[in-house]
Design brief:
alpha/beta, Nucleotidyltransferase, domain 5, five-stranded mixed β-sheet, 48% helix
Length: 349
């Protein structure tokens, strides 16, 4: 059966004859990964697509956009798809960006259940996938700093999280906020309201405009998009490396925001006084900028000396799949064996 036929029948197939495991979905702001995984941790098929934005197009439309990816994963697995109705897997775990509020999780969960891809559906914020990808136990805190910033923590069955709605919920950081802050200081440097900074010339040069003000005007007129402004972040770090005080200030501020989120989560879980994994993910942190990491280490040394920071290397889809496998296995031994098989698969890629 081809992809079009699969989608025309709703993407339904004989579950028990196919996969008694997990359909894992890690849907981030910039990309979406899907994986079909057996209960033993074997990866049968995967697919990758664009970012996930239910806040812009609604839960139903966003989930409809996942259908081609699920179909591609099934086709990649070379499964015997049949027109009979039934779930594809035992568990569907959707770790989804912008699933920040309980009502958003409910709407996305309902939309996923209507697809009948799985017998059971669980929806969580995509930061939980990063946490699970970077830990093997049932405790830890994860901070993701990419396009935006978010944090979750877990201690057994207890979890903590933040609304992560941006400025309105007390958040600052990630590529979007760093770029806007760099523009703010560059513009003020040019018109005399702020100190001189090399960011002004670097931003103007990058966008081939005569000034940072001209870049701001281009954003206003739509010839430069706000998404384009994320290109400023590497310029900011380069300026910090070169010793620009304004750029260095912003890097330190970002480190302190990451640290503040992590410490708040650790405190709420009662883990400040215990050695605890602190998983760091997202593009800004994955880049490993020395000044950012040094400033973060300094903050943690002062406020959470027992935290064990580590930049996650496994992709978030691993965490999403493991959350599903955790629900399938009651035995620690069988769960550990499935986890090793899954991790080994992605480590070889």
């Amino acid at each position: 059966m081809d992809l079009m036929a699969f989608e025309s029948r709703g993407g339904l197939c004989r579950g028990p004859a196919l996969v008694g495991g997990v359909l894992a979905i890690d849907a981030g702001n910039s990309k979406t990964d899907v994986a079909l995984v057996t209960r033993d941790g074997d990866v049968l098929g995967t697919a990758r697509g664009p970012g996930f934005a239910p806040q812009d197009i609604g839960a139903e439309s966003a989930v409809a956009g996942l259908a081609p990816l699920v179909a591609h994963a099934v086709l990649a697995a070379d499964l015997d798809i049949a027109p009979t109705l039934g779930p594809l897997t035992s568990r569907l775990i959707g770790c989804l960006a912008n699933a920040d509020l309980p009502i958003e999780e409910q709407r996305l969960g309902d939309a996923l259940r209507s697809r009948r891809w799985s017998e059971e559906v669980t929806v969580a914020n995509d930061t939980f996938a990063v946490l699970r990808a970077g830990t093997t136990g049932d405790r830890g805190v994860a901070v993701v700093c990419g396009a935006g910033i978010n944090c979750v923590g877990r201690r057994g069955e207890q979890t903590v999280r933040f609304p992560a709605l941006g400025t309105i919920s007390g958040d600052w950081g990630g590529g979007g906020d760093l770029a806007l802050a760099a523009m703010w200081w560059a513009s003020r440097a040019e018109d005399g309201r702020g100190p001189a900074t090399t960011l002004a010339a670097a931003i103007a040069r990058h966008f081939e405009r005569p000034s940072a003000r001209a870049v701001a005007e281009a954003v206003r007129l739509g010839t430069v998009t706000e998404a384009d402004l994320h290109q400023i972040v590497p310029l900011l770090f380069a300026a910090a490396d070169a010793g620009d005080p304004t750029a260095r200030h912003l890097v330190v501020r970002q480190a302190e925001e990451i640290g503040a989120m992590a410490c708040a989560a650790l405190r709420r879980l009662g883990l400040l006084t215990e050695p605890t994994p602190l998983v760091l993910g997202g593009g800004v942190l994955a880049a490993g900028h020395p000044q950012l990491m040094q400033a973060l280490d300094s903050y943690l040394t002062l406020h959470a000396p027992l935290a064990q920071p580590q930049v996650v290397t496994a992709p978030p889809i691993v965490g999403a799949a493991l959350l599903g496998l955790d629900r399938l296995h009651r035995s620690d031994d069988t769960r550990a064996a499935a986890e090793k098989r899954l991790r080994d698969h992605y480590a070889r890629r």
